[in-house]
Amino acid sequence: MARFQTIKGMRDFLPKDAEKLRYVRNTAMEIARLYSFEEIITPVVEHYDLLTAKSGEEIKARMYSFEDLGGRKVALRPEFTASIARLMATSLRNEPKPLKLYSSGTLYRYDEPQFGRYREFWQSNFEIIGSNKPEADAEIIILTDHFMKKLGLSKYLFKIGHVGIMRGLLSQEGADDEQQNRIMQLLDAKRWKEALATSRDFGVSEKSIDVMKHILETKGEDPSKVLPRVEDQLRGCAGSLAATENLQEILGLCRKGGADFEVLVEAGFARGLEYYTGMIFEILVPEMNISIGGGGRYDKLVELFGGEPTPSVGVAHGLDRTALAMENQKAAPRIMKKTVSVIPVNEDAVPKALETALRLRKSGIAADVEVMRRTVSRALQDADRRKSAYALILGPKEIKEGKLTLRDLKEHKQYLISLDEAVRKLLQKK
Ligand code: HAM
User: Are both 138 and 210 inside the same structural domain?
Assistant: First the structure.
């Protein structure tokens, strides 16, 4: 019996799964290039205090934390944003703004494993740092929509809100930051009754509790209908009104900027992470009941870590979940698999086969050389199993004539041609 298996919540990626994940990662990297983001790589292990400063109770409770051999309290990162804010307060402090930073890698949360929820998972993370303007928020939403479309996803929607709507009201009622955080945590967990009761305990008036109830019920697909309803309820609360206006402006810019996606505006929407100060959103795949990404504006985090006031906005896409959504929506990755199987007919042809494979690879063509000395028919069966597009067969006759047999395994045609001609043909068909 095998002695070892993966730890609960951890996964191996066998070739097919690794290929899917790589496709999603490569597409994220292409989005980073198209939107002019630069890549940065940060460590997996960070100070516990950095990661927990504004992560919110939920993530804090699920952190992989330990004392290292030097006696430091450290943790495996549960997200990228804290590390990026750390950089903005230190090494990148004096860089000209805006900075547009992209990262991708593994993250760790001790979540209960279930469909689409793992303890080690992948994100691609995009942050625009240094702008407080709505066009920065819009860019984050537009690039996320572009990413989803580029992957072939068609059924998803942006659930969107603004933390300033609820916080504006609570501030006006005298609730301090900590009290507001507690209420927002309860709202994030959908424990609405408790959130209202706690607000009451914190001294929020009955009139405002009533307004909160209305806000929690105010949602809909058309921002031009939902947001005026929110404004009606919040007359006299300047902070909340400014938040509503800001959200309207961001969504307007997305539309005018040419992005076309489904939205669900939720006035009482809250997210678990505590650093958000403005617009917040999640990308939902309704039929799977999971979010494949989330983000928002956080204007105070860099300052909290000792940096300059640095308004920022960003998003993280859950790559494992995005790959699951692609499978569910039959969005096949467009992976170009044009491997050529190079098959020597006998032992004498082996050196020529190795030489031919090297020549193909140097020309940028993926080549899989037969290393088991199987018969041609067995090797061809294997080429089929590996989904090679072509086979190059080398035997005494071919070698004598300075040629090779190129077999198109899909169209079942074959040609006796020179290596140069074969390379040209394969490159054309790429
Ligand atoms: P988040 O909503 O905590 O945001 O995570 C973003 C995405 O990561 C989720 O929507 C989900 O797809 C994926 N994810 C989270 N936990 C798991 C898990 N246990 N298993 C699989 N996938 C998971 C953040 O992390 C923020 N840092 C986003 C951000 C960037 N805000 C501003 N900038």
Answer: yes
The residues near 249 (Cβ < 8 Å, ≥ 6 apart) are 134
Say how far apart CA 421 and CA 430 lie, in whole Å: 14
CA–CA separation, 16 and 360 (whole Å): 24
Please give the model's pTM, rounded to 2 decimal places.
0.91
Q: To which H or E segment does residue 360 belong?
A: helix 350-362
Residues with CB under 6 A from ligand 1: 79-81, 109, 111, 116-118, 121, 123, 125, 127, 273, 291-296, 298, 314-316, 318, 320-321
User: pLDDT digits over 117-169, tens only?
Assistant: 999 999 999 999 999 999 999 999 999 999 999 999 999 999 999 999 999 99
How many domains, in total, are found in the chain?
2
Ligand 1 pocket test, pick from 118, 123, 322, 326 with the greatest ligand atom count within 8 Å of Cβ, gives 123
Element at 42 (helix H, strand E) = none
83: which 2 tokens?
A: 């590390």
Is 316 in the same domain as 204?
yes
CB atoms within 10 A of CB 185: 20
Residue-wise pLDDT tens digits, 205-242: 999 999 999 999 999 999 999 999 999 999 989 999 99
Q: If you measure from the C-alpha of residue 281 to the centroid of ligand 1, how many angstroms do you get, rounded to a whole number?
A: 11
